[in-house]
Amino acid sequence: QVQLVESGGGSVQAGGSLRLSCAASTSKNCMGWFRQAPGKEREGVAVIDSIGRTYYADSVKGRFTISRDNAKNTLYLQLQMNSLIPEDTAMYYCAAAWGCARPLSSYAYNYWGQGTQVTVSS
Q1: N or C: which terminus of the chain has fewer CB atoms within 10 Å of its end residue's CB?
Q2: CB-side exposure of 11: number of CA atoms within 13 Å?
Q3: Distance separating the N- and C-terminal Cα atoms of the chain
């Protein structure tokens, strides 16, 4: 059974930084971070494929960095978030998919974590 467990969320003031981590019991071709704010659709934030290619939403380019580290039986997916703004406030989810044809589309992902809350105050 695939398990994705996020950590690292919290509250921060605008301009601050947070680092999210996801411990995954699987290593799929496409691993990424998505977010969903109240009343809004889930959106792709940052994705990394099995050979290290990265994809970012325009709204986070230059501020967020995704990375992945393979350990013995666990993959660790990180999201470094800098220069946070209130619009980044959302529940952040770790996700995995077999393919990366549409990396920032949530419909392409089969496996999801429970989410971690990020709140940015002005």
Answers
A1: N
A2: 2
A3: 40
Place of tokens 């992902």: 109
Nearest of 91, 73, 79, 82 to residue 31 by alpha carbon: 79
**pLDDT-above-70 percentage for the chain:** 100
The predicted-structure confidence for 14-72, as pLDDT tens digits, reads as follows 999 999 999 998 878 899 999 999 999 999 999 999 999 999 999 999 999 999 998 88
Residue 89 CA to residue 120 CA, distance in Å, equals: 5
Indicate the SS3 state at residue 16: coil
**77 near 48, Cβ under 8 Å?**
yes
Q: State the SS3 of 42-81.
A: CEEEEEEECCCCEEECCCCCCCEEEEEEECCCCEEEEEEE
pLDDT on residue 71 = 82
Question: What are the tokens at 89?
Answer: 């406030």
